[in-house]
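Figure 2 data, in text form.
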Amino acid sequence: MTADDLRLMEPLLAVAATALLVLLVDFFQVGRSKNFAFGLCLLGLTYALVRNIGLWNSDAAPLCGGLLKLDRLGTGFNAVFLVAGLFAVMLSWTYMKRTGTILAEYYLLLLTAVMGMMVMAQADDLFILFIGIELLSIPLYVLAAFLRHRKQSVEAGMKYFLLGAFSSCILVYGIALLYGAAGSTGITEVVAAAKSGADPFLIKAGLGLFIVALGFKVAAVPFHMWAPDVYEGSPTPITAFMATAVKAAGFAALIRVFTGLSGLFGDGTVTHCLALIAVATMIVGNLGALPQTNIKRMLAFSSIAHAGYIMVGVAALSVNPGFQAAEAVIFYLAAYTFTNLGAFAVVIFLIGKKKEYNEIDDYKGLALRNPILALSMAIFMFTLTGIPPTAGFFGKFFLFKAAVDADLIWLAVAGVLLSVVSVYYYVRVVAYMYLKPSNEDAPGMEQCPWLAAVSLVSVAAVFFLGIFPQFVLNVLDSII
């Protein structure tokens, strides 16, 4: 590792240093350590984000002897992770204060998870990718069960841990097969070996296990079973973090691999596999969300459905690595991240000190009790539906256009039809807020500047991405 490597790894090292400072602050009880840890997180993540943006125009370069890679793809994904981490910290302050569980180690675990995502986005070696996944996953197992006095939270952590452990084993087995075919764990070397005629059976088997392991991370069918229960039982800020940043990290890893392997297999085996997973995920996610009465479970199934939409882009990417694939996926992930984090900010607004108001019935009459909050939630629901001029509309448009350009017309048609199904459960929330009278025990809402900031920034981002999509795509065009 050279001095130049350290300079180019500054965003990642800044997050690591912030995590260590949070640990020391809590250990030595510096001032009001919990408040101090919160401030450190905000400062550390903001600094890392600024330095990450500063690396945007840096020349692509291998780091740490080729184990990591500095390029615009990694830098772009790191920006998404750092923004999601910042928002998750801001959401957590109010949530933990209201539930009486403010602990500095919570922020330490959250920062460690962000580090794992950044390693995943920049990994150019399959074992480094595995280390990044574990660095992300292990803290999340603990965070999912952080409210240990609640049975649902402990159950969420246990389910996530058990299934996550199985997915890690599958990933290692897949890496072993790819190593057997290529003689190296470097992603560049694996791609080169596959193109030079290495054993296609081992390559396909390794990629299949790779898809299974990352399918768990992004909650794609049939690896989605954990998502509804874990999302419902976890602390709400962690649910928001898992539904956005963790999903983006999984797709970052998929893009890393399939950008190089696009069009490699003429028989379309990998493409058909990804397309079937996409369709199954869209069906299960949308139909599963229809009967839900709990907002967190509804958003969990919604998250599964959106993983299916994004998988449409990955399937197109496995055919053609051009403009209409990878960039469509990244655009959609950015739009989805802002939208979901904003929606969960509204959910946390309704959480009281003694009760979490997570039922959709609790949103009755919200437009009269808090018009701005109801309007924000309505915008997020319309964005998730894909109604213009929000970012969700252009996100889905670019994904489905990429599928059409890759001759996956049937997949694009399936995505459009299943998007229509989603209108029911998203618009139902809006109808409850504007057309239903309030319940007698409707939750009171304490004002919180951190929640308001997340909500307002998310609304602004949703409209910016929806009104100026071409500007964003021009930036993305320089990434791939």
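Caption note: The chain has two domains: 1-153+224-261, 263-480.
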